Records
---
Amino acid sequence: MAKLCMGLFSGSLDKLTAAGVILSGAAADDMDVEVFVLLQGARAFIKGNEDKIDNLAEASHLKDEFISSLERIKVSTWYEFFEMAKDLTNVKIYICSLAGKIWGGEKLEDFNDLVDDICGIGEYLTSAEEADIHMFI
Amino acid sequence: MTQEELNNLTVNKSVDARGTACPGPLLEAKKSIGTIASGEIMEVLSADEGTKRDIPKWANKKGNEYLGTVEESGYFKIYLKKG
């Protein structure tokens, strides 16, 4: 079974949505997936923050158009994409311990239900080394 | 298969994913293919253009057989046989 390793640095709505779509494709393909959430990304995974993410990494002046288009064409939220992927295949989500601390998350219970554990950078690099596909978002 | 042959297939499972954009139809196909037996036929209804290439490639990669696509007004039907 192919393995996908994703470094998720971004915590913006557009890139989280992109990551969710890619995870969905990986789930359809029965891939083993490991997501390592780094720096800005960790803020989105703090418990209670999932609905508060509304900034865009690209073309921020088109935020309203982007959000209304997602609703019009019935695109799932980034959180729903992650949930669906976890339901369908083996997806593990790890928060970089440094990133968690930056946003006030020290322990696993500080993060939402998507998160499987807190890890260090060494595990991310080992995962990337072993993976068939490595993405950095 | 010809369009006529596709239209005359006995479908064991029909998945209507016309209300969703990519990756919705692919996910619906993935969820539903597990509910039919080997050799049975599934059709996926979609209005998302990307699905026309996505689902056949996915199906063949996963050991299923892509039988063909039928165009309808405003949507299309993709036929798969489970491997």
---
Amino acid sequence: MPAHNLPTNSGAKPTLAVFKFSSCDGCQLQLLNLEDELLTLVGAVEIAYFLEARRRVLPPPYDIGLVEGSISTPEEERRIRQVRRDCRYLVSIGACATSGGIQALRNWADVDEFIRCVYPSPEYIKSLETATPIAAHVFVDFELRGCPVNAEQLVELLSALLLGRKPNIPTHSVCIECKRRGYPCVLVTKGEPCLGPITQAGCGALCPRCERACYGCFGPMEQPNIRSLANQLKNEQGRTNREVKLALRQFNGYMEPFKQAGDYYERLEQKET
Amino acid sequence: MSDTTAPLIHKQSFLPKDAMNALVRRLVDEGYTVIGPQVHDGAIMMRPLTTADELAKGVCDEQDGGRYRLTDGDSEMYFDNVVGPDSPKRYFFPPQQKLFTLTIKGERFQVDDTTPKPPKYAFIGIRACELAAIKIQDRVFGIDVDQQTFRCESDQYYRRARQNALFIVVNCTRPAGTCFCVSMETGPEAIDSFDLSLTELREGFIVRTGTEKGVALLGQLPAREATSAELELASMKLRRARDQMGRRLDTRGLKEALDKSMEHPRWDEVADRCLSCANCTMVCPTCFCSTVSDTNDLATGQVTRTRFWESCFTHQFSYTTTGPVRSTIRGRYRHWLCHKLATWWDQFDTSGCVGCGRCITWCPVGIDLTEEATAIREQQTEASDRSGRGFVDEWAE
């Protein structure tokens, strides 16, 4: 029996392509960091396009395309459409690809001013006004959250795709991971501004494990009650509207409903001054 | 924990403080994995230990809705704190457990569903409310054969871990701010179902034996006859604890009130605060929901089914083809509270709440079960004509 059920174009091993857009390469590195599973993965798929890992490039079409990074330039805007046409399944991986990422913070600022400040010859820079997630441009079959993505979730996703089953990627809070693993709650025991109760699980509760507050790098969970947590941070911990806004506007600040909530606390902040 | 009537059972004696070391050593020597309260990352956690020095001696806890802090207490007191987020549930019903693997052999599946052998656990320092919770989970997991209402298939791992376990319960002399065991009639003193029970005084413990196992264990420790002054002091401390409950819940007519509360406006109010984060269900010593997930190994094709703690506060919990059945936070909170305090009676012929207060302390926004239940009970209004509020633009000015 073949190790996969994914129907392929050629009847051979399914092909995997990994594409980079505006990003730090950290999510691609998670793939290379798989170590134990990497050889198994290479045995199960044909790595057809993965510039971070190998020079050889096979021509499209590809069975599975993983996309890292946000769409930040006119060139990327064109290229993602071609990538979509080239891939049977397209999965965006990481905070940049699923929300616009840290670079989406510019969506609230004047990009031209940034360019003038940073580059000696700004005329060479061709940048879009906004950094946006892949799904804002093309249809994606699945989104894997995280900054960076979790290696175990990456293996789970690929195993599921290859077998033709639904990936087990939970959409509930980080709190469930903390409690299953027996980490005491940093919000309750220390008054830390933990975003775990509104953030999607998947990281293995990395930060609470080190007695630090979750900063939401996996983005909003299913139906997050942001206002209630914000009220707690403000009323019980004495945090300001500005602090709440900044907590929400991080790696996934441009993903709904963090985006609307961040804008709301910005308006409250402006009213105060 | 059979109810034998040997003369030594329920005899009270006095055990000096320094015998705690001998007690733990004895249990370790007898092959027990000893679980007791220890300080970890700013909380009292129930973890394995090998010496009495690891116990959370001299540590007090302050608990309130959404707030937990450890403070320095009387350095002579081993158990001057109350329950933390952990409970014996973690050891009888592990948060993550492999159920079986399937391997393809030729044309067939080979199934490996051997239940792992649980360690022989000795719990030291569990509380009366936790014993009550274990008795409730016995019904849930189908090992309490005396009663008629259990409907779940018996859980083999739970049964084995549970039946080999030894319980050294500590009667609470200093309840926490979120405790209400008196209201739920589960504490602060354990009446039965323990091997040994301890009431801590400054110089030692008043020990009561509950089983033959407990009698045998105590026989190997330097216990002596308790004086009437010591017994009087212990019962005074327990009486005082009864009066110091941080919370209370009037349970009279509560089930009936909850049963007809489906459209109570209070559910909307609590839904505004509830994060649906599931902390309450994770720390609850009686909540028993789980989910299973199947994973496949790319190299071998082997499939593994794993069981995880799950919560009725997640979408996945009630997910059907058309989406989650309980799609609103209002619906999920209502479901949880009504199950815990009302429909649990229909299902298991007991309340699902033991009054330990964990769900109050560990709720990040401090939602108080006693307050919500009381509001529902006392504001018996006409059924609201609106079922939920429909669409609300949450971030409108």
